[in-house]
Amino acid sequence: MSSTPLCLNQALRNLRNLDENRNAVLTLLSSRRLASTTAQHPSASNLVDDSYQTQNQYREPGVLLWRGFTLQEFANQCFSNKYDYGKGRQMPTHYGSKKHNYITVASTVAFISSFYRRGNFHHFMGSEHGMGDFHAALNFAAVLEAPVIFICRNNGWAISTPTSEQFRSDGIVVKGQAYGVRSIRVDGNDALALYSAVQTARQMAIKEERPILIETNVISKFPFHALTYRVGHHTTSDDSTKYRPANEIERWRLARDPVARFRKWIERNGWWNSIAESELRSSLRQQLLHAIQVAENVEKPPIEDIFSDVYDVPPSNLHEQEL
């Protein structure tokens, strides 16, 4: 048996562990919830090596975990200590790593670099389809025949706005087709389904020199419409029960949980059991709490860092301020 299923299970459980221990790690999770989109990013990331760039939003920490980014590095970023690669300049959970070719959220280089690298990935939320950048990017990618894979995480909500109030089209996938981008839907709560879809999409992108759009969607009007859902609140300050029924959330949590579904699959194959699951959960939780304790006690970056990494050649007025 390949070690990939067990490694993927550990990545999924690691992400869920962050979510389940949110009260203890409130600062670590700070503003964004992983919720039931957990299955998507590790499944997509394990198909490529670290040389491939991935442009992300803030719900793709699984890509970093798969590539070797440690819990300590996550904690350092969220506490903005001196070991934070962003030097305290980004919001918590806006991770980035040059070593792992993981571009920070909102980076202006994201779309441009995608067009000139073979099989790169760009993750984005379904609600972003209403922005001009989405349409421009798909059109540019199609016209330039860029070998890039766009992964749309359409989890049913834009904070408190449901998809029914965002668009009337058949999801996001038809928008890719309109621009001449080969597009497909996949069950975003099924790690195996997404793995298969991304594997096929990557082969197409590289061999055929063309962009591919993968949508993970919540709507289920058609047989091959994908199913994913934001089980958690949008942020730690959000109470989603104010705009959606609690029983709807619980129904998705019980019936479509991506981590539980993957665990059942590896158990049926005889690769996993409840004892191994319990040991893994306990170990990961201890590692997480230890990382938080360490990061919290590390000093902040030096004040001088605010003048670096912005200009190749700092202007005179910046020199004056530094002095």
Automatic annotation (TrEMBL):
A GO biological process this protein is involved in?
branched-chain amino acid catabolic process
Q: Which Gene3D superfamilies match?
A: 3.40.50.970
Q: Which GO terms describe its molecular function?
A: oxidoreductase activity, acting on the aldehyde or oxo group of donors, disulfide as acceptor
> Upper lineage ranks?
Eukaryota, Viridiplantae, Streptophyta, Embryophyta, Tracheophyta
Per UniProt, which keywords does this protein have?
Oxidoreductase
Q: Give every Dehydrogenase E1 component domain span.
A: 55-110, 130-303
Protein's UniProt name? Dehydrogenase E1 component domain-containing protein
Quick check: keyword Oxidoreductase in the entry?
yes
**N-terminal signal peptide:** none
